[in-house]
Amino acid sequence: MIPYILIDWLFDSVVLSLFTVITIIYYLSTSTYDKWRKLNVQHIHPVPLFGNVFKMIMGLEDQITAFGRIYRRFPNSKICGFYQMRTPFLMIRDPELIDAITIKDFSHFTDHGLEFDPSINLLARSLFFANGQKWKVMRQKLSPGFTSGKLKCTNDQIKECSDQLIQFVDEKLSKQSDGFDVKEIFGKFTTDVIGTCAFGLKLDTITDSDSNFRKYLNEIFGNNFKQTCIMMLGMVFPKVVKFFKLRSFPLEASNFFYSVFTDVIDYRTKNSVVRNDLAQTLMEARKELVLNGDNATGDEKFTDLDIISNAILLFTAGAETVSVTAAFCLYELALNRDIQNKLRDEINSKNEKYGGQFTNEFLMDLHYADMVLEETHRMYSITVNIIRQATQTFKVPGMDSFIIEKGQKIVIPMSSIHHDPKYYPNPKTFDPERFTKEEKSKRPNSTFLPFGEGPRHCIGMYS
């Protein structure tokens, strides 16, 4: 009799314990899911733990599809709510409100709110991830590196890299007839351009099939399963990622670029090398913020790691974004021969006008080329969303008493807006004529956001 009683007791204990554990897990995974209901914000009912991004996390749909589905669900709303895993996000759909958040009332939304630990992720110290005063100071120090005057000085270097690219393509075409990877070739080209123009590095990546620069760039931006899992875990339990010091960026790649840019700065400093480039801007920032920055303390204090982190960001992000845009642009030109011919005619005409000289005046006069690139940016946005976090409580204009609380994460669905027929009829059609002055004047502000908007727009927007 006693053994049966003991078995029953153990069984009941196991069932009770299992029920308790499941209840706790369920509570923790759904405890945030009443926020939008309480605030009477339209939202999609979330799935426990995964929120409204289950298919995206499972790899069943990409980000564009996932966020586009949420965007289209509430076509008449200025805002809507959703849950990225357990985190409540507010999606901003209205261009006028986007304009307020990114420009007019930017002081309420200065931070991206991306949580990466700078002690284990070097890129977390860079401009893109920095918040508050540290972002503001670094932005001010780096902006002089992107003036029109400095960019004009790079024309000869870009032409040299372009000539090398054309020679490489000609040789490729003479040896094979089955095509080649345009994105990879442009990746090599942009790596060489940024290497020489911004950092004075002669990389010859175009002809070097074993370039470490390309290898580690691909590691940072590639679809690595381990890194994807860490990013997913960070969405649900950021404290776990921080506790176990899990790296969101490959360590070997970070170490490689850290070594390269440290050597560049050390060499220039020791040999008194001065060039009118981005590396010089970083060195001047280092002098002011690190070597002479005695007043800063704690998290506001700058170190050499901050300077190197920004060098890595500007190099890697610049090379990758330009190569991807160029690849998509060529893809659309190949599909649309009439646009290709019109663009070629403009380039040939302007080339003759300026005597075959690759000057800033020649580039600024390529108006149709600008329209082609803008349409490429619209159709193939490099990033899907703009992320912000409220740094102050914000009363939403025109929405009675609705308030965005301090700390609330928001999403501006850039790609979804770029494909909204309300602003861009037949959005799947590649049509540069959307970007004539007349057509642009018909659209509301903040409906074309490939580089973001306001004080926190991409620092390389005009380069």
UniProtKB/TrEMBL annotation:
Q: Which InterPro entries match?
A: Cyt_P450 (IPR001128), Cyt_P450_CS (IPR017972), Cyt_P450_E_grp-I (IPR002401), Cyt_P450_sf (IPR036396), Insect_CytP450_Detox (IPR050476)
List UniProt keywords, sorted A-Z. Endoplasmic reticulum, Heme, Iron, Membrane, Metal-binding, Microsome, Monooxygenase, Oxidoreductase, Transmembrane, Transmembrane helix
Transmembrane stretches, start-end: 6-28
Q: What SUPFAM superfamilies does this protein's entry cite?
A: Cytochrome P450
Where is it mainly found? Answer: endoplasmic reticulum
Query: What CDD domains does UniProt report for this protein, alphabetically?
Result: CYP6-like
Compartments where found: Endoplasmic reticulum membrane; Microsome membrane
Q: Which GO terms describe its molecular function?
A: heme binding; iron ion binding; monooxygenase activity; oxidoreductase activity, acting on paired donors, with incorporation or reduction of molecular oxygen
UniProt binding sites for heme: C458
The cross-references to Gene3D superfamilies, in alphabetical order and at most eight, read: Cytochrome P450
| Topology with respect to the bilayer | Peripheral membrane protein
UniProt cofactor(s): heme
GO CC, sorted alphabetically, is: endoplasmic reticulum membrane
Q: What is the top-level taxon of the source organism?
A: Eukaryota
Q: Which family does it belong to?
A: Belongs to the cytochrome P450 family.
Give the protein's recorded name. Answer: Cytochrome P450
